[in-house]
Structures are given as C-alpha cells and as structure tokens.
Specification:
Blueprint: H1 4-12, H2 18-25, E1 44-56, E2 61-72, E3 77-83, E4 87-96, E5 99-102, E6 104-107, E7 111-120, E8 126-134, E9 153-156, E10 168-171, E11 192-201, E12 205-208, E13 211-217, E14 222-233, E15 240-243, E16 246-252, E17 255-261, H3 269-273, H4 276-287, E18 295-301, E19 308-309, E20 314-318, H5 325-328, H6 333-346, E21 353-355, H7 362-380, H8 382-397, H9 422-438, H10 440-453, E22 457-459, H11 461-472, H12 477-483, E23 491-499, E24 504-511, E25 520-528, E26 531-539, E27 543-549, E28 556-559, E29 568-571, H13 575-584, H14 588-599, H15 605-614, H16 620-629, H17 635-651, H18 655-666, H19 674-680, H20 686-699, H21 701-711, H22 717-730, H23 736-745, H24 748-764, H25 768-784, H26 791-807, H27 811-825
Parallel strand pairs: 1-11, 17-18, 18-20, 21-22, 23-29
Antiparallel strand pairs: 1-2, 2-8, 3-7, 4-5, 4-8, 6-7, 9-10, 10-15, 11-14, 12-15, 13-14, 16-17, 19-20, 23-24, 24-27, 25-26, 25-28
The protein binds zinc ion.
C-alpha cells in the first residue's frame, strides 16, 4: 500500500506545527503499546474461497454466498472461527456431496463461531457454506472499538446523485477489512485460492484477482462475471471493482497487462501506465523470479481511501494518478509516478511472499519503498536513484518521534500505525545500505533465495536474514539486530585534524545518540595530490578515530564515500573542502551536501562558484536546488546567475528547471523579463506557464489578472494554481466563485497550497454572503484534516479573516468565524 495522504500532508505543511501537534496529542503512556502483537495463531487454514455476490446499490449492501474450504492447521478440531464484520449471517452449513447440512453457530458482529459436524484432522479438507449480507456503511453503527471507518467495500455515488462523479464499487482489504465483505480468517499469514462471481448491471465492467473465467449476460439487464485466482494469496489482497471503466490492453511475455480507466482518461492509458511491461521485465530479471501471476491489471478509482493498493494481480490506484498527456509533461518520476512501480514490486514482496504479521510489515513495505529507488537508478541513472533514497532518509529523519520505533515492531497502538516512515522510508534506506554492504549480486541472490524459499507463503525478517546469509556467506545478525530489531539511527559528528609536522591526518568520529553504538562499515575517501584513495573502516565504538599519513594535506577527506549511511550527520568540513567536493566527488549526495553548505555562505567565492556551477548540474533536481538557493540579493551571485537563469528559463529541456528559473527571475521584478515570461506562458507545460503567470503577476498585477482569465479554460496543475493565486491576490468579488469552487473541490494538496491566499481573499471581498461561504469552506477544511493537527493553523488564519471582516463591519461573517473557531478547538 502507498499511504499517499499522510506523506503529502506532512510534506506540504512541514512549515507549520504538524509534527509537533501529533507528538503532543499522542498520549505519553499508551496502554495499547504494552500489548505484545503476536503472529495470529493458525487453528484452521484457508484452502479455497468461492464467492457469489450481488450488490444492492440503494441499500449499499452486498448479498453473498460463500463456499469456504479449510483444514485444521495441525491439531484436530471440531470448531471454526471466521472473521465477519457487521454482517447478517443467514445460514451456515457443512457441504457434503453437494448437500448442505446446517451447523450451529454464534455471531457477535465480528466473529462467527461455528460448531462443525465432527472433529477434523489436518489431512482432511471440509467446505462450509455461508449465506450472508455485508453492510459496510452500517459498520460504525455496530459500535465496536475494533471497527473504524475501514469499510472494506465502498459504494461511490451509488444513487448517481453526485454530478461529474461516476458510479463505482471497489474494495480495500489491507489491513483487516476484507472480512467486512466476506467471512474469512482475516490474517496475512493465511493463503487461499479463490473464485469470485459477481452479478452486476450489464453496462459495467468488473475486475478481480486472477483470470476472467466466464461472462454470462442475464435476461434482467445484468451480467455475471466469474474471476478465478488459481494461486494462493492472502485475504487482504482480495479485490473487486465494478464500474464504467475503459480497458486498455498491453502485454508482457504473453501475459495480459491492462489499464482500467474512466473513459475520459482512457486515451492517455499508455502515457500513464505504458512503462509497466518494462518494469515487470526489469524486476523479473533483477529478482530472478518471473512475475508470478497470470495477469497484471491496474485500475484507477474515485474517492480512494489511501494512495494505492497492491491487490494480487489487480492493483488499485487513487484518481490522483489520472492525468492527460499534457499534465504528464511535468510528471517526472519523483513527482508521484513512483507509486506505479511501488505497487508492482509488491506483487513479489507482499503478494508472492507475504509479511506473516503486521509487526513484520517491513518485508512488504520497506521493499516496495526500496523498489522505487531501484527503478529510478535503472531507468534514469544513479543520480536519480540516489536522489530518491536521499528523499527517503530526509523524510524519516524529519520526524524525530520515530526514532524510538523498531523496524520490526511487536508493540504498536494500532496496526495502521505500522504504515509509517520507519516501515517505508527508513526500511528502504536500510535495504539500500545492506545492498551496498553485500554488493549487488549477493544482495539480489539473497532476495531470490528469500522469494523461492517462501513462495506462496509468509516471511519475516529472520527469513530475509537467513536468505541473505546463505547467498553471501556472511553473518548478518549484527546488521539485523541494530537496524531491524533496534530503533533509531546514528547521530554522527565528524571532525578533522591535519598535523603538518608529522604529515598525519586524523578523522574523529563520534556517535552522540542515546544507547549503544551502531556498527558501521565505512568507506573513507582521501583526496590528496590529485588522486583519491579509499580506506575501509569499521566503526564499532561510539567514539572512534582514524589516523593516516599523507604526503600532502588532503584537499578532502570524504567520510561515507558511497553516501549510503542512514544517519544524522554533522560534518565539520570547511567551505573550501565542500567546494572541492562539489567539483571532484562523484555522487549526487556529494554535490547535494556541497550545495547545501554553499547556500549558507554565498559571501565566499568558492561557495558562489558551487552555486553558479550547480545551476547547470547534470541532475535536474540539483539544478533546482541551486536555483532556489541562489541569493539574488548578492550582486556577485545575481550578475553571474542571471544570464544562466535566462537561458535555463528559455531552453532547458526539463520543464521543472525552466519553471524554477522563471520563478527565480520573477522575484527580481525586472520589467526587462516581461517578454520572456509572456513567451513562457505559451508553453505546453503547465509548470512553466504557472511560473510565468506568477512572475507576470509580480510585475503587473492588472495585466496578469486579464491574462489569467484567458487561460482559465485550459488550466491544470501549476497553471491552475497560479491563476487561483493571481485571483486570490488581486481579484475582486467577480473571481471569488471560481476560486471558491477550486478550493472546495480541490485535492488536499491544492487546498493546502491555496489556503492562506484564500483566507486573505475571503477577508478582503465586499460581499458578506461570499465571505461567509469562504469562512465555511475554511472551517470545513480544518475539521476534515483536524486529525493531522492543522486545527491551530486554520484557527489562526480564521482570526486574521475576522479582523478584516470586522473592519468591513461584516458582523455575520465575524459570528460565523467565532462559531467555526470554537468548533475547531473542540477536543476530539
Ligand atoms: Zn506499499
């Protein structure tokens, strides 16, 4: 699963107090953390699950018949427990020779306890028939603490009353929601083959796991589709989707690869997903295990509750992945496209071999996270891979409350808590280090052994360790103990001393985190006399030092020469050394660190050389970093940077670099650039257009307002955002409805980006009615995202609006604000 939401929100409002807010509201002593989260015991094993379902769109019900085949896991038993959330259970029978004999059972809205007709041994399969109604929308009414808003089965616009929204049904099983639509043993350490028969309105298409075995048109305007998954997989990976989707077919080695999209986006199916077969091929070869399922489909649905989900052979994406060919011009890999490869890698790490419990979620999610970097370096080069994994490290390190959490975690409050930056980004970074330590060939051989040994079964971190040890012949307990079963990361201080008399260089390494030392195999690169010399060093103590001779004073001592450490690092290099590093050390992170250091010291000539050179760095994200860092108030920087920025703004092949250069030039408010901006406004790239409109806005607000109007119709992404900001900044009551609509209907990211401007606009307009509309929209937004800690920030904005409205004697809006703020501040 890719939990897009939280990541997006954290990323976008990192400037506000989100993380602190969450940390403060978390109770210090959560009793749930004291519970040891054991792997679910296996009394009975699922063998085969056969479902026959119909949907009641009006009632939001699923009418189901199930034939579930099981066997005792080891010990003989005469009873069976099945998870079934909030259902009506009409009949439970044992099936023998095609005949149903009713069984005694009790049901408490969560579990069906069934008394079997006799005691079964573990070499005997038996089949139980269940007739039931699933009522996902009434789950909350069951009032159980175990049931949150995880409905399992979602009816989207089932009455067709929401304009511009298709009618769809889709499911979401992870973590434990499949049992909201069929009775099962809802644990990741269960595996079952399945067969799902769906009867749906004939105008819709269906998708499920495995192959479409049959379709039958019925006389009553419905059609019955049967999907068969003939290889075992876990119940949380079951899926169904029903709706008006257009299917675009592709292929890999004779297997169907398909993309299910709303008809409107179907023409762009290959632009969005067309690289899928290439990724399947790459992962198959890298892992030495061909894509294991009979087909690979991807479907895009509305109102999805997370980012995307790796249902076996049928990944489901949220609608943010839908885009036109033109929008995709700006959709570089690191701009949200990595989800597509993340879900695909799960088809091996997650679906083929499954984490045996949520405590071991790392063997699913850390790998899927790591796979994003794998594809980046394979497809776009080492810099792109290094940039991706560095983003992971920074994401994890920016959340200090995570440093107490083990990667393999047997104590957690809620299983959903496992889906955090420890399991994803920290886990991915650890795999990156492990691959560096073992070398690519041994690492991938280990993954191959892990997959083959545990195929169609479950794995935990120990199986991973054993497989990597088998491949490499090296003990890895030290690595797993500190990184998998321990918490935190090294906080590493690095200082240097050169002694000219003895020609010795000392490197002092000091780990200052609480607790034990991390054992760190390090490469230390010494650049002296025009050549580089690598020294290997194991840091085993919290304080270590390394002394070596050098004929001349080194120009640079580069600790962690492979730049693979997950650590909070303070490196006391001088700016001269960082400058040398930018121009001589080879890696993305070498240059990244140098630009970071140079950005802070632009009075220094060397630092300026780094910033100016980096404007043309070979990797676009570093170009953008330098563009943003360049201090244009420094005459030397500006004089050197301006001609380069003008060239980048006009001709750089990367549209995000062009946009960043335009944005930097825009801040100069130099009328000489007006034509450059006007030309850029004609670009096909929304990012370039958006930057150009914003730059023009700063130069001449009236002109920009008129121009914005002409681009309203064909605007998406950054251009749309720039139009909204232009209106919100300089518009009057005439543009308010447009901005209001965009704000209320926008994606969370759009809303966050626009929120402050929208609040200012709401404070400024003449109409009290419109102002009250605006206030309501801001309050609704604050309530919707209250759980992410935004309420104080939204309340502060509203108080600003209140001051403005009070000056306009708009008592109605002032009252609405008081009421809204009170509601936001109410404890949950
Ligand atoms: Zn995932």
């Amino acid at each position: 699963m890719k939990t897009l939401y939280a990541a997006m929100l954290i990323g976008s409002i990192s400037v506000c107090a989100l993380n602190t807010a969450i940390a403060q509201t978390a109770p210090a002593e959560n009793p749930a953390l004291k519970i040891y989260r054991e792997t679910p015991p296996k009394y009975s094993d699922l063998v085969h699950t056969k479902l026959d379902v119909r949907f009641d769109y009006k009632k939001r019900y699923l009418y189901g018949k199930e034939w579930v085949t099981l066997k005792p896991h080891f010990y003989p038993t005469d009873s069976l427990r099945l998870d079934a959330q909030g259902m009506d259970i009409k009949n439970v029978s044992i099936v023998k020779a095609g005949k149903n004999t009713p069984l005694k059972f009790t049901y408490d809205s969560l579990t069906i306890n069934i008394q079997l007709d006799r005691t079964y041994r573990n070499n005997e399969n038996y089949t139980v028939y269940i007739n039931y109604t699933a009522k996902p929308n009434e789950l909350k009414a069951q009032g159980s603490a175990a049931i949150t808003d995880a409905k399992g089965l979602y009816f989207i616009n089932p009455d067709g009353t929401e304009k511009d929204k298709p009618t769809q049904i889709w499911t979401q099983g992870e973590t434990q929601s499949s049992s909201a639509w069929f009775p099962t043993v809802d644990s990741p350490n269960q595996k079952t083959t399945d067969e799902i028969t769906m009867t749906v309105p004939a105008k819709y298409v269906t998708l499920s796991n495995g192959r479409l075995a049959s379709q039958k048109v019925n006389g009553d305007g419905t059609r019955t589709d049967t999907w068969k998954m003939e290889l075992p997989h876990s119940p949380y990976l079951f899926m169904m989707a029903v709706g008006d989707f257009k299917i675009t077919k592709d292929t890999w080695k004779g297997k169907e690869v398909s993309y299910y999209l709303e008809p409107k986006y179907a023409p762009y199916a290959k632009d969005i997903f067309g690289f899928t077969p290439e990724v399947i091929d790459f992962y198959s070869k890298t892992l030495g295990v061909d894509y294991p399922w009979n087909k690979y489909s991807q479907i895009v649905v509305r109102d999805y509750v997370s980012g995307a989900m790796e249902n076996t052979s049928a990944t489901l994406h949220g609608d943010y992945v839908q885009a036109t060919k033109r929008e995709l011009i700006d959709a570089y890999y690191s701009q949200g496209r990595s989800t597509i490869v993340h879900e695909l890698f799960h088809q091996w790490f997650g679906d083929y071999v499954t984490a045996e419990s949520w405590s071991n979620l790392s063997v699913n999610e850390s790998f899927a996270d790591f796979s994003e970097t794998l594809w980046a370096e394979h497809k776009y080069g080492k810099d792109a891979g290094d940039a991706h994994i560095n983003g992971d490290r920074l994401n994890y390190l920016s959340q200090p409350d995570l440093k107490t959490k083990d990667l393999i975690r047997f104590h957690y409050g809620n299983k959903e808590d496992m889906f955090d930056a420890v399991t994803y980004q920290k886990g991915g970074s650890i795999l990156y280090m492990l691959r560096n330590y073992l070398g690519n060939a041994a690492f991938y051989k280990g993954l191959n052994i892990y997959l083959k040994t545990n195929a169609f079964k479950n794995g935990e971190a120990h199986q991973l360790r054993l497989a990597l040890e088998e491949a490499s012949g090296r003990d890895l307990n030290w690595f797993f103990n500190q990184w998998y079963f321990g918490a935190g990361h090294p906080v590493l201080n690095i200082t240097y001393k050169w002694d000219d008399a003895s020609k010795t260089q000392t490197v002092y390494l000091n780990q200052t985190q609480d607790g034990n030392a991390f054992i760190l195999p390090l490469a230390i690169d010494v650049y002296a006399g025009g050549k580089m010399d690598r020294r290997k060093f194991w840091m085993r103590n919290k304080v270590d030092s390394l002394v070596f001779h050098s004929a001349v004073k080194p120009s640079l001592v580069n600790v962690d020469g492979d730049k693979m450490l997950l650590a909070k690092k303070t490196d006391s290099k001088t700016i001269d050394e960082f400058t040398f590093q930018y121009f001589n050390a080879p890696l993305y992170l070498d240059r990244f660190e140098a630009i970071t250091a140079a950005a802070k010291q632009q009075a220094n000539g060397g630092a300026r050389k780094v910033i100016i050179a980096a404007l043309n760095d070979k990797y676009y994200e570093l170009q953008i970093k330098a563009i943003k860092a360049a201090d244009m108030t420094n005459d030397d920087v500006r004089n050197a940077a301006q001609p380069i920025l003008i060239k980048l703004a006009q001709t750089d092949p990367n549209t995000l670099v062009r946009a960043a250069a335009i944005t930097a030039l825009g801040k100069l408010k130099a009328s000489g650039n007006t034509n450059l901006f006007k030309d850029a406004l004609k670009s096909q790239s929304y990012a370039v257009q958006g930057a150009a409109l914003t730059a023009l806005s700063a130069l001449n607000p009236e002109d920009a307002l008129a121009l914005a109007k002409t681009y309203e119709k064909d605007s998406e992404g950054a251009l749309k955002q720039a139009i909204l900001v232009t209106y919100a900044t300089t518009g009057n009551d005439d543009q308010f409805d447009y901005v209001y609509k965009a704000f209320t209907e926008g994606q969370p990211q759009t809303q966050f980006d626009l929120m402050k401007k929208f609040a200012d606009y709401t404070g400024r307009i003449k109409s009290s009615d419109k102002a009250q509309q605006g206030v309501k929209a801001i309050v609704d937004f604050g309530i919707k995202f209250k759980k992410y800690g935004v309420a104080p920030q939204v309340a502060a904005l509203l108080n600003g609006v209140k001051e403005s409205r009070a000056k306009l004697n708009d008592t109605a809006s002032v009252a609405a604000i008081d009421k809204g703020v009170a509601e936001l501040q109410k404890p949950e």
